[in-house]
Amino acid sequence: MVGLKQPESEEVASPCVNTCTLDPVTGWCVGCGRSISEITGWGTRPASERRAIRAELPARMAALARVGRH
Question: To pair with 34 at 20 to 30 A between CA atoms, which of 2, 7, 13, 25?
Fold first, then answer.
């Protein structure tokens, strides 16, 4: 079955690391990098949105680290 793409999993793991503190400037969690709306709506978002959010997190965490908030 060369060329056939497997269906994408609807499961996209939460990036939560149980360090739930929001940065007062960015509004991002210092543990995972998500905003409060991304955190609270995680389970109801489509997998494509969860993947898009996860893709943004490394840059957010790097930004928090640059200013000493991670």
Answer: 7
